[in-house]
Amino acid sequence: MVHGYHLIFGMYGFWLPNDPRGSWSDFVGKWELLRFGKATKVTTPRSLAHEPHDHSERLAAKKLLKYPPVSLNGVQARAVGRGFGTLSEKSKIVIWACAIMPEHVHLVIARHRLRIERIAIALKSAATRQAMDEDVHPLKEYREEGQRPPKMFGRGEWKAYLDDADDIGRAIAYVENNPIREEKPPQRWSFVRRFEGI
Fold first, then answer.
1. What is the average per-residue pLDDT within 70-89?
2. Cβ(157)–Cβ(117) under 8 Å?
3. Among 112, 122, 109, which residue's Cα sits nearest to residue 5?
4. Is residue 40 part of a domain?
């Protein structure tokens, strides 16, 4: 039985639909990106982030995006966290771990009445709303008159289903260590609850 989820989603431009390591996408929506290959949809439950690939080709593809890839600064990450906290409290979503990195987000979330895909959409929406309220949306300068700014998060999400306390504990440790692995300070968020077993 599923008791929780390890949820990951990227910022805009972090993981392209034709990333050689695989993606969540069925198609490449921009003609210019097609020269780097077709969509590379995979269904593996394990992370592909550390698979070898041509880093320079990936950076060249990112230069063809409509907007620059989003990389959150500390103030923007704090706004994203505030948005997550607001949603967590309002919707009673239990979050056991959270790491908001410049280009992607990791969360460990307890099973909820909503499907995890719906929770991912709600988290992105709450974070975007908070970034707009604080006037720190990373793509605000590309906002057209009378319109919302371009989306700061990429489409889709990656999720792993956590079936027991050991799985949940490993996922929490992985998420908590994510900033440290990237030589950043540990993150402490007020909305994160201590995991005390199933």
1. 98
2. yes
3. 109
4. no
Q: Assign residue 103 the CATH number of its domain.
A: 3.30.70.1290
Beta bridge mates, 5: 109, 161
| Tens digits of residue pLDDT in 39-68 | 556 655 555 555 665 566 666 555 556 889
- Backbone angles phi and psi of 29, in degrees to 5: -85, 0
Residue 115 belongs to some domain of the structure: yes
| Burial state string for 138-148 with b = 16 or more CB within 10 A and e = fewer than 16 | bbeeeeeeeee
CB 118 within 8 A of CB 126: no
Please indicate, yes or no, whether the overall pTM of this predicted structure exceeds 0.85: no
- The residue with greater pLDDT, 66 or 96, is 96
In a domain, 105, yes or no: yes
Domain that holds residue 170: 4-8+70-181
C-alpha span between 173 and 177 (Å, rounded): 6
| Domain count for the chain | 1
